[in-house]
Amino acid sequence: MAGKFEVYEDASGKFRFRLKAGNGEVVATGQAYTSMAGAKAGVAAVQRAAEGASVVELEKDE
């Protein structure tokens, strides 16, 4: 099963999104938005940014 974004209203009345993997595990969460439309725009922004994104390994701070 493919992953999915869930958009929802939290207990404080703000709107958030979370990305769930195919097995139901939450793998990412978004910030709080004042509207459902804002949360959906956040999802769209993540989808655009993730397409073709590279993986960068960071060095451990010493």
From TrEMBL:
Pfam families: DUF1508 (PF07411). SUPFAM superfamilies: YegP-like (SSF160113). Gene3D superfamilies: 2.30.29.80. It comes from the Bacteria. This is DUF1508 domain-containing protein. Residues 10-57 form the DUF1508 domain.
